[in-house]
Design brief:
- This protein has a 7-stranded mixed β-sheet. The protein has a 4-stranded antiparallel β-sheet with strand order 10-12-8-13, with helices on one face. A two-stranded antiparallel sheet has the order 7-14.
- The chain is an alpha+beta fold.
- It binds zinc ion (ZN) (2 copies).
- One zinc ion binds next to loops.
């Protein structure tokens, strides 16, 4: 299928207004991870109206739509994440989030609208459609809590999915551009707590106490050396403490101090080494200060997104034919994480990027309360998604 023969391009144009309206509706009604009830209702309603078989309540608020084409072909899934973030939106948009403390600041409103539009386009021409398309709407990507229970609920088993694709919108790229990387594309993520226990007392008599804050400070500074001295320079890894808690007053030495942070890496080996070393490093540094430290992992690890060579080359070819070489950008692997990784551990596929950077101003980072999306990127996502789905369903 070449650039000139993808037969469904008119369908994308026809749905341009509906695509933007859908995205704005999700944006205006942003919901936090595992609370996406309205979002799930809208998704289910649209998929039912398009004639898909719809299952709801998977992993609490997840939705799956199955579309059987009338021609023989393969079974291929498309995954979109649907949750917002705990932020109070700053930009005064006409479709600003009406839910205080919830905002689509990562682009998942766009992912959801693109996936619904893809389902509607394919459903409208079911008679020509080869194979079976499975649309997976996953809750709780932002807390890494939605992919695993959806997979456990069998969304890749019935019908038996052969490959899975999806996209993340990004302000790293201008609107209209796309990118895909074989191998590690997004980092793994682990969250940890370091609890340092000492003995409280008066700030004027530290020699009568064991100060957990001093011990925690040395752990914080020293742990960066685990990356710089123990991991090879060509293997990227990041350790960040994002929260420190300890004490109540200027002159009281507290009993405990807690630091919370995250580890990012691309190789499981590097991730395992840092997790293991952080535990013994923290406990020994604390011991040197007569305190005790315990490191505990919080929640599940989100592994790195690793795109297989063959499926990434396939999406690259689709992009080349559909959008042209000038729209395909080269991007380095990103230290951000995404639990699409779990789907890609279960099935071959590719998770690619589609640009949504503003045209005339600097982009605000994802997860910022002033984040904004350039909606010109949305139909580009639909176009590359459609090409990817149509060709893989047909086994091309
Ligand atoms: Zn995010
Ligand atoms: Zn995201």
């Amino acid at each position: 299928m070449s650039k000139t023969t993808l037969p469904w391009r008119d369908e994308i144009k026809k749905r341009g207004a509906s695509l933007v309206a859908l995205r704005r509706d999700f944006h205006q009604h942003a919901e936090l991870s595992m609370q996406e009830t309205r979002t799930a209702e809208v998704i289910a309603e649209r998929l039912r109206a398009a004639g898909l078989e719809v299952r709801t309540g998977i992993a609490k608020t997840g939705v799956v739509g199955v579309l059987h084409g009338e021609q023989p072909g393969h079974t291929v899934a498309w995954r979109a994440d649907i949750d917002g973030l705990p932020l109070d939106e700053i930009p005064e948009l006409p479709f600003k989030s009406v839910n205080a403390g919830a905002m689509h600041a990562c682009g998942h409103d766009g992912h959801t609208a693109i996936a619904i539009t893809l389902a509607e386009i394919l459903a409208a021409r079911r008679a020509e459609l080869p194979g079976t398309a499975v649309f997976i709407f996953q809750p709780a990507e932002e807390t890494f809590g939605g992919a695993q229970p959806m997979i456990a609920a069998g969304v890749l088993e019935d019908p038996l999915v052969e490959k899975i694709f999806g996209l993340h919108l990004t302000t790293m790229l201008p609107a209209g551009a796309v990118a895909m990387r074989p191998g590690p594309a997004m980092a793994s993520s682990d969250f940890f707590d370091i609890t340092v226990k000492g003995t409280g007392g008066h700030g004027a008599y530290p020699h009568l106490s064991v100060d957990p804050i001093t011990a925690a400070s040395h752990i914080l500074i020293g742990m960066q050396d685990l990356v710089s001295r123990e991991i090879a320079a060509q293997e990227p890894a990041v350790m960040t403490i994002g929260e420190i808690r300890g004490g109540t007053k200027h002159n009281i030495i507290p009993e405990t101090a807690v630091m919370r942070g995250s580890i990012r890496a691309f190789e499981a080996r590097v991730r395992d080494q840092l997790v293991e070393r952080l535990g013994s490093f923290a406990s020994r540094i604390a011991q040197a200060y007569r305190a005790e430290a315990r490191v505990s992992l919080v929640g599940d690890c989100c592994p790195a997104v690793v795109n297989p060579e063959a499926e990434t080359a396939f999406v690259h070819q689709c992009a080349l034919d559909e959008l042209g070489a000038e729209q395909i950008h080269d991007v380095p692997p990103v230290m951000g994480s995404d639990d699409m990784s779990l789907f890609l551990q279960a099935r071959p596929g590719c998770y690619f990027w589609v640009g949504i950077a503003p045209d005339n101003k600097d982009a605000m980072p994802h997860h910022h309360a002033a984040f904004e999306m350039n909606e010109r990127g949305l139909p580009v996502g639909v176009q590359l998604g459609l090409a990817t789905l149509l060709r893989s369903l047909a086994g091309q």
